[in-house]
Amino acid sequence: MDVLVSLAVNGLATGMLIFLLAAGLTLIFGLMDVLNFAHGGLFIWGAYTGVWAYHMTDSFLLGIGTAIVIGLALGLVTERLIVRPVYGSHVQQILITLGFMLVLQECIKVVFGPDQKVVSPPSYLEGSFVVGDIVFINYRLFIIVIGLVIFFAFYYLFKKTRVGLIVRAGVMNKEMIQSLGINIKLVFMLVFMVGAALAALSGMLHAAYSGVIYAEMGLEFSILAFIVVVIGGMGNFKGSLFAALLVGLTQAFMAYYVPALSLATNMLLMAIVLVFRPQGLFALR
Amino acid sequence: MNLRTIEKSTWVYLAIAFLLFVVPFLVTGRSIQFLIIQIFVFGIFAMSYDLLLGYTGIISFGHVMFFGVGAYSTAVLFDRFEPTIFTFGLAILVSAIIAGVVSFIVGILTLRLKSHFYAMLTLALAGLFLVGAEKWRKVTGGSDGFTFGLPDMLRDSFTLYMLSALSLVLLFFGLRRMTKSPFGKVLVAIRENESRTESLGYQVLHYKVIVSVVSGVVASYSGVLYILSLRFVDTSVFATDLTIDVLLMTIIGGVGTLIGPIIGASLIEFAHHWLSDLSDVHWLFERWIILYGTIFILIVVFFPKGIVGTLADRYIRWRARRTE
Q: Is the Cβ pair A106, B293 closer than 8 Å?
């Protein structure tokens, strides 16, 4: 029993991190029909800059703040310079964002050095507590809480506010929104920036979670985010939460019970989904 | 055959092909011959990739799996059986069959969907192949890999050079014939406008599956040659980096042509070679991928046809102006 619960907590924490990463990606796809393979690059930039600020100032919150600011800024740059010239062509988008991904990843090595960096959570989030015979690790619970808060904040934003209404309507029919006099390009840009900031935040939280960061994480997490988006259904915000949790939980349980297959879990999940339900498990349309 | 019906460009290519066979008599250094063999191997690999990307408009992120299948089948067969020419033929056959079957299944499953699904599924499958090669230690030796013996004939770097040069030339002309055939025209039509091609009565899926099988088989053959030149195999033949390399080769050289990927392959193999030497001079050269990625982005935005396509356009415009 205690094993099951701690595996579940573990999986949920990983899932929440993946959700933060994938949420932006799925919105960007839903709204702008853009396949952004550079998303993992934003993730590692968030991780490295956040950790840098955290180590410099000894304040974890400042690290998170730095990651978010860097995410917003990089999101702006990516949208303006990389994605804007290739709106409308999937093939070109995939190619150019993949190229940008490589550049982002190598720039990390230039700025922060090619070696791995070791990170630990701040003292007030370290440690664990025991309920019955089940051990809860504080930082994992912290990530789950953050993930849920962000999910509900965005859910509220989408359902109850005018901005959310515009974004939701944009996902459905962007020409109509434009003809109603709304500057859809500005909305695109803002969504892209917010998505990038979420990815950067996810990177920062993941850094302290896994304890070690390295530049190659960029491509790995780009792929992981895409897997989640494919499973959840492209453009579906809620779907990406469920898919991310599914991926996180499957990963945790497979790593424990079938370690031989753990590396292949995500790929298998995606292959199965693509074969039987290519529009994603929680597809909108 | 009437010589006059042969296009002028064919003569140019034949002349270049002839030069390739003269080179090893002039350039005898082992390391430089090895480099040129690598260019031939990756030229073949990139050509097979361009059949998908450039001619049909399909993006694959897992093309490396066919390369790896070729490499591993060859290595395993040479390891298990007597290293003879017969085993070599068997290796080519086995890898072609595996690559053909895999690409057929993948194609049937995802080519009816939108482009990014094929990209994702091939990426996933290539990942599975990599994990499989790591885990199936009995056969693959895991991530340590293994060395194997070659038949006496293929040990010599001169023979290997001739074999890969011959393969490149034959495949180049063979694929060129295919892309200029009515079949090739349909592929280009699919790239330009899939729904229109379909409404003209072509079974788009059939064409796409056939081209993906051809591409997979050719890629597996390049894997066979690659592993012959290395005489050692490990899981790096399934690494995503190779897919990205071949993607860059195709894009930089020029999509939608066959000579473009070969030129791209030579540029990138030379860049690998010289820039890794330069990294002793300054550490920034170790990070040459930045340069690489930047050039790649600029090419996608400003010269989407790559080196060959852009030059060809210039030439056509220049000729048009001269004849005015």
A: yes
